[in-house]
Specification:
By secondary structure, the chain is an alpha/beta fold. It has two domains: 325 residues, ABC transporter type 1, transmembrane domain (ABC transporter transmembrane region fold, Up-down Bundle), CATH 1.20.1560; 171 residues, 3-Layer(aba) Sandwich (Rossmann fold). It has 23 helices and ten strands. The relative contact order is 0.08.
Length: 617
């Protein structure tokens, strides 16, 4: 049995230049960008900060109560009748602690609720903003290999989650701890300068260790981002190609590819965790040294008669209030590094001004459809040159067919005419105006596009047809469906026009797309292989609808269907991205050039002699 091919190692994004990463990954830049989104919630932020400050004072109550308890018990223990004084002390501390806990419940709830509300609202706003933003981008953005669906989804999802986690970590988790630490440190200095210095000295040490930990993990976290993007792309690719995988019985190979990247992710994650464990142990050891120094220092002052015994536990508890958030510094660095890692990709997408389509321009009212291409060149973002010095004219209210072999550049011309892409050189004129200067939205409102495979949205048939004109009523939808020869089949369904559109066959879905086009009623229509994937009967039904669409419109058509080509008023023959012939069917056929060659090949593929014998027999 032959050895199956080994799974290909999934490549990660190349590491960008250090200067660029450091410049883009500055925390201050991220915070400034987040501040724009947080501006509408400034009152919530102020309320959260106020509750946090109040909570930081209540958090110190336990230390005061413990000192009072120890010192008071020490005095009570010397009394002849300690019980009465002991009970009174217990009632006092119970009342104080109970009051403090009740206040803490309300303070903590308000602080966490407001913080969570900020996080949720920011998550919504970030997600909405980036979707609105990418909808304004050129088609080249979506066809770039750097923005395939898996990578794009990962950058958006992890970008939003990491940024909002940073907000959550700050407002809900870390801000209260740091407020407690500051208040505790102030109290320590107020009771004794040297005790306060012990608490203060540990802070830069923890910062230094946590910074070293963050730098050590930074490369691993960037690798993890690449693994996640690659994994997401792999899964989407697998789903899209599942029929090919199963037809070639390659399930084991695809599973092995996934296992390879899973193993790489696992190794990376274990490395991150092991480094974290080592640094956590170091920080715990330093904290214990601090506790020992606090105990020894306070014990010295007790023996000197400058402090009571209760001050030992008092200082230890305050020191722990200082050390608690410092212990969690690695969490802050984790959140910051995650935010910086994914925010870099997130804001790259959000702020890519070069990708924004030029929307505003000359109005396209009274569009006639006189189109001229003058010396047009075009190369796709991947480097493939599709058009070279293309020049021809499309006359209004006529049917123009673009003829050529697969890959000749026919669909590329339609993409340029719809302004999905802009030519690298040359000019495209519409009714005497440069297409680049025309208002893109108005232009597309007046252009219809029917593809080989038109997208059907999740939802009902009625909703899918109404996509052509969102203001259409039910009668308009029915009229459009009748023109598309789909009405009778729709009403034959159990739920009629409320049936799920995704359940329709390919031919039916194509006619739904045509009904959508009739509802839009554009003066210019582009047809790009609209019947290529349909069976003969479905093609015949769709052709009848197309014949209706073609009436009194400027039609530009790409097709390998011989019947549709013959129906065209004008033909433009394209070979290897260049226009080689233009004219009518009769003229070009008589020239015995490239069109004659293509037309003859189409005729031979149909076996017209056998068909003629059958029909005449």
């Amino acid at each position: 049995m032959p050895t199956p091919p080994q799974p290909r190692r999934v490549s990660l994004d190349k590491k960008p230049p250090v200067e660029k990463k450091e410049r883009r990954a500055l925390l201050w830049d991220i915070l400034k960008k987040l501040a724009v989104f947080a501006q509408p919630y400034r009152l919530l932020i102020i309320a959260t900060l106020a509750l946090t400050a109040l909570g930081s004072f209540t958090a110190q109550v336990n230390a005061f109560v413990l000192r009072y308890t120890v010192d008071t018990l020490t005095e009570i223990a010397t009394l002849a009748e300690p019980w009465e004084a002991g009970i009174r002390m217990l009632m006092i501390i119970s009342a104080v602690l109970l009051t403090k806990e009740i206040l803490s419940i309300f303070i903590s709830f308000g602080q966490r609720f407001f913080g969570e509300k900020i996080r949720i609202n920011l998550s919504r706003d970030l997600s909405q903003r980036i979707i609105e933003r990418i909808l304004t981008y050129r088609m080249a953005f979506y066809t770039s290999s750097e923005n395939d669906s898996g990578k794009l989804q990962t950058r958006i999802d992890y970008g939003v989650s990491s940024l909002t986690s940073l907000v959550q970590n700050f407002f809900i988790d870390m801000l209260p701890l740091f407020a407690n630490a500051i208040v505790a440190l102030i109290i320590m200095f107020s009771t004794n300068f040297w005790v306060g210095m012990v608490g203060l000295v540990i802070i830069p040490i923890y910062f230094f260790i946590s910074q070293k930990q963050a730098k050590r993990l930074q490369g691993f976290r960037r690798q993890m981002r690449g693994f996640r993007e690659a994994k997401s792309g792999l899964v989407i690719s697998l789903i899209n190609s599942i029929s090919v995988v199963k037809s070639f019985v390659r399930e084991s190979i695809e599973a092995e590819k996934h296992l390879t990247i899973q193993k790489e992710m696992t190794d990376n994650q274990l490395r991150i965790r092991s480094i974290g464990f080592v640094y956590d142990a170091i920080k715990t050891f330093i904290e214990q040294i601090g506790v020992v120094v606090i105990i020894l220092l306070t014990a010295y002052f007790v023996l000197q008669g400058e402090m009571t015994i209760g001050m030992i536990l008092f200082h230890v508890m305050l020191f722990q209030n200082v050390a608690a958030p410092i212990r969690q510094l690695h969490r802050i660095y984790d959140q910051i590094n995650n935010a910086l890692t994914y925010a870099e990709g997130f804001f790259d997408i959000l702020e890519d001004d070069k990708q924004v389509e030029n929307i505003a321009g000359i109005s396209s009212d009274n569009l006639k459809g006189h189109i001229e291409l003058k010396h047009v060149d075009f190369t796709y973002p991947n480097g493939t040159q599709a058009l070279k010095d293309v020049s021809f004219t499309i006359k209004p209210n006529r049917i123009t067919a673009l003829v050529g072999l697969s890959g000749a550049g026919k669909s590329t011309i339609i993409n340029l005419l719809v302004k999905f892409y802009a030519p690298d050189a040359g000019t495209i004129c519409l009714d005497g105006h440069d297409l680049a200067d025309c208002d893109t939205h108005e232009l597309r409102q007046r252009i219809g596009l029917v593809l080989q495979s038109n997208h059907i949205f999740s939802g009902t048939i009625s909703e899918n047809i109404r996509y052509g004109n969102m203001n259409a009523n039910e009668d308009d939808i029915i009229v459009a469906a009748k023109k598309a020869s789909i009405h009778e089949q729709i009403i034959g369904l159990a739920d009629g026009y409320e049936s799920t559109a995704k359940s329709l066959s390919g031919g039916q879905q194509q006619r739904i797309a045509l009904a959508r086009m009739f509802l839009k009623d554009p003066p210019i229509v582009f047809l790009d292989e609209p019947t290529a994937s349909l069976d003969a009967i479905a093609s015949q039904q769709v052709k009848k609808s197309l014949d209706l669409i073609k009436k009194d419109r400027t039609v530009i058509m790409v097709s390998h269907n011989i019947a549709q080509i013959i129906d065209a008023d004008d033909l433009v023959v394209i070979e290897n991205g260049e226009v080689v012939e233009t004219g009518t069917h009769e003229v070009l056929y008589a020239q015995r050039g490239k069109y004659f060659e293509i037309f003859s090949a189409m005729s031979d593929s149909l076996n017209l002699d056998k068909i003629s014998q059958t029909l005449n027999g």
